[in-house]
Amino acid sequence: MRFRYSGVLICLTMFIAGGRHAIGADTRQQESPIGKKVSEFALSDFRGKEHKLSDFSDHKLLVVAFLGTECPLVKLYAPRLVELAQQYQKQGVAFIGINSNSQDSITEIAAYARKHKIGFPLLKDSGNVVADQLGAVRTPEVFVLDAERVIRYWGRIDDQYGVGYLRDKPQRKDLEIAVQELLADKKVTQAVTPSTGCHIGRVKVPRKDSAVTYSNQIARILQKRCVECHRDGEIAPFALTDYDEVAGWSEMIAEVVEEQRMPPWHADPRHGKFKNDRALTDEEKELIYQWVDNGAPEGNPHDLPDARQYVTGWQLPQEPDLVIPMRDEPYRVQAEGTVRYQYFRADPGFEEDRWVKAFQVLPGNRAVVHHILVFAGRPGQRNVAGGGALGYLAAYVPGLIAEPFPQGMAKKIPAGSQLVFQVHYTPIGTEQLDKSMIGMVFADPDEVTHQVKTFSAVTNRFVIPPGAPNHRVEASTSEALFDSMLLAMTPHMHLRGKSFLYELVYPDGKKETLLDVPRYDFNWQTSYRLSDKKTLPKGAKIHCVGHYDNSEDNLNNPDPTASISWGDQTWDEMFIGYFDIAFPVDEEQELPFKRPERRRRVGPDELLKRLDKDKNGQIEQKEVPLFLRNRFQRVDANNDGVVTKEELEAAFRNRD
To answer: In what helix (H) or strand (E) does residue 422 lie, and over which residues does it extend?
Structure first.
């Protein structure tokens, strides 16, 4: 079973509770509604037409799906519900959707129905009356009622989408199985399943005497910690800039704060001080909990802080001086399967060196763009910066917030350079278009005192054994050739990444922890920016240590039985300790650290000669080193257990 990641998933993990405790655990702890008869109710759809429960009396079964307009999981499951409704319509099964969110307007419900082409009734449950009667807690959450309108199934639609993963297909189609069993007059074998999703935004009764209100405290906390992403046009799935919207999400806000999922920040506070630290203080957390417990009161709007001003569409402090798209026409992303890394070249037309003090890479379609690295390369240059392992000019990865370099510091783009976009796409089931771009804010060359470079401590020489719960991997830079300054660190691993540590090893052997991420989260590729620049003295080196969890206990693990080595896809692994350094522009050396020596690239003939130990003209799996086994399986196009010269040549052509 493969797992896929996308911008949709990032929205998922941004605000849906995670971890074993939060994935629907509270939903199942309440009294089960199985066997409960549902009383008559009447609700209006977004067109104003009233629908009663009794209107469906001639149907054998009624599927009631509680939905919202902005919860990412609800968006993912909309096509599935439409498909199931059409599939079982002729068998006497009716579907209705119910929106009980106080924050969702009729207009928003109508837009959701149009966008997802929902043909079954989509009803507004004002005051969450029907949600209370059935005991609904989250969206999406489904109930299957039999002919007597007794609840026979309660829970999720299936297990394809969850917190931290997207499977290619579900392992268990819970709703469909329940419907089939009931149509066959059988008892539902699994009548209750855990629901993962957003809390229903119920109507609240605020305490009038609450000392904590949205206007006097909560709006300030959200503005400081959350609004940077939770605003119109940004990566978060909804805005947190309006009281009614925030109040509707209040229980969800309290849950993700308590679970330490939001705001996303994973550094151990005992090591290093970071200017982009998003972590809430204990006092801020308590204010949020108290506000939610008191019914999310608004308070006096006159107490609201002034709204922060943002550049529309950009996180940069100003409009970019230059915006370069990756290509003239959008790239068409296929609906299914794996898309190899795509490379696009754009010529900015720089006739002289340009200094850039701020970058932002803006994905054109966050639903399918997993990450982008941008390099400055010579025309025709291949394998720029080791494909990204050795550094990059600018990047878009989940959780990365664009920010200018410190005063007097900038990156240099040499005259005549082309911009190379390396884009990782993840198909989401429908064909999509993408036209990503990069924005740049230029620096006055006369004001630039230090050049900034992104470098890395990296290794691809590792194999993670099957089932290993805490496999250690480490990498170091060479010894520094001259003094420089450390500005930021960005650890990079994939799905099995568990922890990541940066150490500064001084010339005398003394070690200092620079950054410790004890609970690494692949969904958040955070750049940890130091509050104060750290001197990296000549002769020192940066040493990185990581651990991987390849066991069944890792819920994100695609295959605990596999040996895992370096690879581009998310079910492979990487170990890269990126960091930004700055050094005087008049320094003769290009970099304070030597770049790792790259091995001469071999072709299919030489590779066949090296690996074909029995000299039979083909490569068998047992002849391949363990760390290359997963590559072997991808090159073996017909899955016959051997790789021929023709298959090798085809693989090299695809790579090129």
So the answer is: strand 418-425
